[in-house]
User: Which sequence fits this backbone?
């Protein structure tokens, strides 16, 4: 297990377009008994409802969605570039049918009973504040529909960032 330290959120400085959109992250949810993770590249961080928040988008078909829906917490783990293959693996394989974590060469860690990726170097521990399922009738630009040709829609989850961990 790696040693993580609390990191002051006011000192957090990263480019979300790079960190989330290009480098990707792993979103995890569940319990110590059973958890799952998946790769995300859509989301962001900011301030909403007077709170520091992170938001992510998860498709209906994803196994991790079941864990996010059934619990109150999720984590977002950022890993360095040497883990790109593991991120790729977690985005293309399902924990429903295999031990995805082990096969990706990753291990669990927990804080506040929230699962996160031990190989991460920056972790956001979040409490779920809202879940909004996207629907075609909410799209204001017609070109958005191309992302949903198969009908596999996203739910947007907003979570308050309870703690930031770094190693």
Assistant:
């Amino acid at each position: 297990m790696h040693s993580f330290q609390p990191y002051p959120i006011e000192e957090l400085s990263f480019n979300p377009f790079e960190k989330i959109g290009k480098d990707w992250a792993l979103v995890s949810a569940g319990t110590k008994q059973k958890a799952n993770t998946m790769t995300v590249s859509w989301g962001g961080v900011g301030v909403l409802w007077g709170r520091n928040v992170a938001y992510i988008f998860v498709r209906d078909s994803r196994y991790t969605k079941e864990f996010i829906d059934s619990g109150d917490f999720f984590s977002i783990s950022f890993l360095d570039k040497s883990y790109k293959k593991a991120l790729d693996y977690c985005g293309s394989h399902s924990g429903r049918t295999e031990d995805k974590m082990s096969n990706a060469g990753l291990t669990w860690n927990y804080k506040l009973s929230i699962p996160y990726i031990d190989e991460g170097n920056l972790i956001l521990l979040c409490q779920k504040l809202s879940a909004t399922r996207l629907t075609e009738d909410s799209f204001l630009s017609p070109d958005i529909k191309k992302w949903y040709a198969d009908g596999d829609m996203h739910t947007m989850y907003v979570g308050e960032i309870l703690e930031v961990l770094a190693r």
